[in-house]
């Protein structure tokens, strides 16, 4: 699944114009080009450089990545990123705690980080969304992909998938894609959600 997502990302990146590449992504502070370059970090930097950065930033993955990604984006053109993703599609990266599900989730979320600001449609594979949604409401994502406290008291229900997760009396409903982006802190999808827990989630994502 990870290998296929990397190949899909290569196709996407190779299809973009220079103007699209320098458009701000949904990943705050990063352009589309920087998000794309970040996906090559596992085999270029390796665990010896990535894991210490994550630890330095208290398992805040985005901050650790920001420390590493900008130089990488300068070094790699879009064409080179596409070649890197294809050549290393089968690369195994098993970071502590989050494991392979962290990689699968990263690829799916960053694909939408790129496509949504550009007005592009990128369908996610339901089976893969289910794995990532379950990962995001579980303990291994807490403190890295999902800050502590974001999910407290909330239960999430997908309207287009047979999935619900989280513990709480307040409910947040939306498509699997919208929940994936909301759980990882993208406020752009808040208007696509419904339920008694949306106000609480809105406050946490926009604080």
TrEMBL record:
Record-annotated membrane-spanning stretches: none
Gene3D superfamilies for this protein: dinb family like domain
UniProt superkingdom: Bacteria
Pfam families: MDMPI_N (PF11716)
GO molecular function, one term: metal ion binding
Domain Mycothiol-dependent maleylpyruvate isomerase metal-binding: residue ranges: 3-82
Protein name in the entry: TIGR03083 family protein
């Amino acid at each position: 699944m990870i290998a296929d997502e990397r190949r899909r990302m290569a196709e996407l990146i190779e299809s973009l114009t220079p103007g699209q590449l320098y458009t701000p992504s949904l990943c705050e502070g990063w352009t589309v080009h920087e998000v794309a370059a970040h996906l090559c970090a596992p085999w270029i930097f390796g665990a010896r450089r990535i894991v210490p950065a994550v630890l330095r930033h208290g398992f805040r993955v985005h901050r650790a990545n920001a420390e590493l990604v900008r130089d990488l984006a300068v070094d790699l053109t879009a064409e080179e990123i596409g070649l890197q993703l294809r050549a290393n599609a089968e690369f195994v990266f098993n970071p502590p705690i989050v494991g392979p599900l962290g990689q699968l989730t990263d690829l799916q979320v960053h694909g939408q980080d790129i496509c949504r600001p550009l007005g592009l449609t990128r369908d996610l594979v339901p089976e893969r969304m289910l794995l990532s949604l379950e990962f995001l409401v579980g303990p291994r994502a807490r403190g890295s992909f999902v800050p502590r406290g974001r999910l407290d008291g909330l239960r999430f229900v997908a309207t287009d998938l047979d999935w619900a997760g989280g513990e709480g009396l307040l409910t947040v409903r939306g498509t699997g894609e919208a929940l994936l982006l909301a759980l990882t802190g993208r406020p752009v999808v808040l208007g696509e959600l419904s339920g008694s827990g949306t106000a609480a989630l809105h406050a946490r994502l926009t604080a």
